[in-house]
Specification:
The complex is a heterodimer of chains A (about 400) and B (about 240). Chain A contains 15 helices and eleven strands. Chain A is an alpha/beta fold and about 400 residues long. Chain A has two domains: about 5-215, no CATH class; about 310-405, no CATH class. In chain A, the strands form four sheets. Chain A has a four-stranded parallel sheet with strand order 3-4-5-6. The longest helix of chain A is centred in the middle third of the chain and has 24 residues, at about 185-205. Chain B folds into two domains: about 1-125, no CATH class; about 130-245, no CATH class. Chain B has helices at about 10-20, 50-65, 65-80, 85-100, 110-130, 155-165, 205-215, 225-230; strands at about 1-5, 30, 45, 135, 140-145, 170-175, 180, 185-190. In chain B, the strands form two sheets. In chain B, strands 4-5-6-7-8 form a five-stranded mixed sheet, with helices on one face. Chain B has a three-stranded parallel sheet with strand order 2-1-3, covered by helices on one side. In chain B, strand 7 and strand 8 (about 185-190) form a beta hairpin. The radius of gyration of chain B is 21 Å and the shape is elongated. Classes of the chains: A alpha/beta (about 400), B alpha/beta (about 240). Chain A: InterPro entries: Aldolase_TIM (IPR013785), DNA_rSAM_put (IPR023874), Endo/Exo/Phosphatase_dom_1 (IPR051675), rSAM (IPR007197), rSAM_sf (IPR058240), RuvA_2-like (IPR010994). Chain A: One of its GO terms (molecular function) is metal ion binding. Chain A: Keywords: Iron, Iron-sulfur, Metal-binding, S-adenosyl-L-methionine.
Chain lengths: ~400, ~240
């Protein structure tokens, strides 16, 4: 099989992986080497689904021993199969990189023969790239659940980011749809990678030249909508993973109906709006100081599709609003709908010059179409109807709901 | 109306700033020779580029204000926006008075103008770090053509000198007819008009592979061409291998 056909099959097979981020690492180039990593990441192109292309995202092979119901590469699917050789992956990576097509490599894989064999092949690719070809560009590597932890650990010394796919948000889901995979096999390498990252960071504080281990962190992915878990359960899972596993971030991938299976829900289209709301809520957990229990609870376990999660939270907690923009601290500003991390910081620093009036606030540029209902500016309220807890939700639904037309979140 | 006319270089511009600060009669406009058109009401003063003076201004911005401000001035200069020079003069007057915190005056009009110019340049430079495409020529050189809105070639040359340090490359700004040429040691700027290029024998194969990857990585069920175009405006497509085959 020629290289072009292989590339076609194995990039097509990798495309459902949501992550394409190339940020978080600042690996520098060395003399005689090729490439470096940019801390903020760089997007090199955008495909027709609007997603950023930063990395050469491919599977090493789509030849799989498992038969996971939701997966396009399941063993029982009648699909053309292909496997790269390590040399082929290296050749593509280096030549694409030198032409500035890509920021680096994202190598994932189906499980061919057994987890160890697959992990060994992937390890060979990254080891040769770094050692023989002096490649210092970005590498995101998937750890294969069930592979020997020595192999995963060695691979981690070459990768910038590593991730293990959680696949499904509950053990029940896993048993039903991915009977070949065990929860322990997924959590064990995540735990190991997490503790190695902590260890390496501590060492590097003491010794500048201590070896790096996955400097850009780990970022697992889970599939949303293939199994019945509510958003509350998913957010609780993410929250606890952030606390325990030292994760960079969790990726949510709306289930794309690629297979027919009696265990799968019959949906015509992937639940993209739900995926979008989960990302918004995830951001609130990581950057806005919210907890999963504030956003949702047993009685109200799904994110509202009409309002973004922060707006929904604000409408349920109107007693703390309206908030005076010239007095509120950073943490409180962050809780106002329409005010993000950047505008909150700008408001704080602009206040050092003078007390802000509404015109000043406009120049700073938060989303006032949402924020104005929840703030006062030098004591004055600027919403276009009176602040009334009983009717605000209804009125906003009419107003903001229309403006907040869903656009896909861009994943950097 | 008093015009300061400088030679169009960054050094020349900093010299003009020096003269403007120490002049009893500060300029109402600072314009490069190339952009100056004389009119009935203009009086002009020609600024001779002076290394000592420009170095002084450079150091003063860095030490007395902040290196962030220095970078802001440099990026804004590269924007080539109309009246950017005189706006920078007003910005610097304020900055020397207020110090580095001037950049936090988000509701001040002049600061806002300057920050917006900086953002335009740094945003395009960041974009182009990803969107520039090199082609290999018969002589082994990697050739990257572009037509950016702003004069970002120096920013890119610095980036690629670190990243692609073991290959010869040329970054060519076709609209300004300038090129940065790198020989695995150092890079230099030189005038260069559009020329015929001869691709290496291998080049087509890799362009073809990249095109294949680009097409197969998109998920049809999630097609969103509007978002694609929003992230990657059409003005950049002309030189993209994947969009121009």
């Amino acid at each position: 099989m020629d290289l072009k056909t292989k590339l076609s099959i194995l990039s097509d097979a990798a495309k459902y992986d949501a992550s394409c981020s190339s940020s978080g690492s600042s690996r520098s180039n060395k003399s005689g080497g090729v490439g470096n990593a940019a801390r903020n990441g760089i997007c090199h192109s955008w495909s027709e689904d609007g997603r950023c292309i930063s990395l050469l995202k491919i599977l090493f092979t789509n030849n799989c021993i498992y038969d996971c119901a939701y997966c396009i590469n399941r063993a029982s699917n009648d699909k053309q199969r292909a496997s790269f050789t390590p040399e082929e992956v290296i050749k593509l990576t280096i030549n694409f990189y030198r032409r500035n097509y890509i920021e680096g490599l994202f190598l994932s894989s189906a499980v061919e023969k057994n987890p160890d064999y697959t992990m060994e092949q992937m390890l060979e690719v990254v080891k040769k790239l770094r050692e023989e070809h002096k490649f210092n560009g970005y590498i995101h590597l998937k750890a294969i659940p069930g592979a020997d932890s020595q192999l995963i650990q060695e691979a981690g010394t070459y990768a910038d980011r590593m991730s293990v796919n959680i696949e499904l948000p509950s053990n029940d889901g896993l048993q039903k749809l991915a009977p070949g995979k065990k929860k322990e096999d997924i959590l064990k390498p995540m735990n190991m990678i997490g503790s190695k990252i902590v260890e390496s960071k501590a060492n590097r504080k003491k010794y500048n030249n201590a070896p790096q281990f996955v400097p850009a962190g780990q970022s697992p992915q889970l599939i949303v909508g293939a199994t019945p878990e509510p958003d509350y359960q998913i957010l609780r899972l993410s929250e606890s993973l952030y606390q325990k596993m030292n994760l960079k971030r969790v990726y949510y991938s709306a289930y794309v109906p690629v297979n027919q299976d009696s265990n799968l829900p019959a949906i015509p289209k992937p639940p993209l709006l739900r995926e979008h709301r989960l990302y918004q809520a995830d951001w609130l957990l990581r950057f806005y100081g919210f907890s999963a229990d504030e956003l949702l609870n047993e009685g109200n376990p799904e994110l509202d599709l009409d309002f973004d999660p922060k707006m929904d939270w604000a409408l349920r907690n109107l007693d703390i609003f309206p908030i005076e923009i010239n007095k509120a601290g950073y943490d409180t500003l962050l809780r106002i709908p329409g005010i993000g991390v950047r505008s909150a910081k700008k408001i704080i620093s602009a206040r050092q010059e003078k007390a802000l009036n509404y015109q000043d606030l406009k120049k700073i540029g938060p989303a006032l179409n949402r924020a104005k209902y929840f703030i006062t500016c030098r004591g004055k309220y600027y919403g276009d109807f009176a602040f009334n807890p009983d009717s605000l939700r209804q009125k906003l639904k009419h107003k903001v709901g229309k403006q907040d037309k869903y656009t896909q979140l861009s994943l950097f | 109306m008093l015009y300061f006319i400088y030679d169009g270089s960054f050094q020349g511009f900093l010299t003009a700033i020096y003269e403007a600060f120490y002049s009893d009669n500060p300029p109402e406009q600072i314009v490069s020779e190339e952009n100056f058109t004389t009119n009935l009401f203009s009086t002009t003063k020609k600024i001779e580029t002076d290394e000592e003076k420009s170095d002084k201004v450079y150091a003063a911005i860095k030490d007395k204000i902040s290196s962030y401000t220095l970078r802001t001035v440099y990026y804004c200069f590269l924007s080539e926006l109309e009246e950017i020079e005189i706006n920078l003069f007003h910005y610097l007057k304020l900055a020397f008075k207020e110090g580095g915190q001037v950049n936090k005056f988000h509701s001040n009009d002049i600061v806002k103008k300057i920050k917006s110019a900086r953002r335009k340049v740094s945003r395009e430079a960041h974009r182009m770090k990803g969107l520039l495409r090199f082609r290999t020529l018969k002589n082994g050189v990697y050739y990257g053509p572009m037509e950016p809105d702003y004069n970002i070639i120096e920013i890119l040359a610095r980036h690629f000198a670190k990243r692609l340090s073991d290959q010869d490359w040329i970054i060519h700004d076709l609209s300004r007819e300038w090129a940065a040429i790198y020989n695995q040691q150092e890079w230099a700027l030189t005038p260069l008009t559009e020329t015929e290029i001869e691709l290496s024998a291998m080049e087509e194969e890799y362009q073809d592979l990249w095109q294949e990857f680009f097409d197969s990585i998109a998920i049809e069920n999630r097609q969103n061409k509007k978002l694609q175009q929003q992230n990657m405006p059409k003005k950049y497509w002309k030189h993209l291998v994947e969009k121009n085959n």
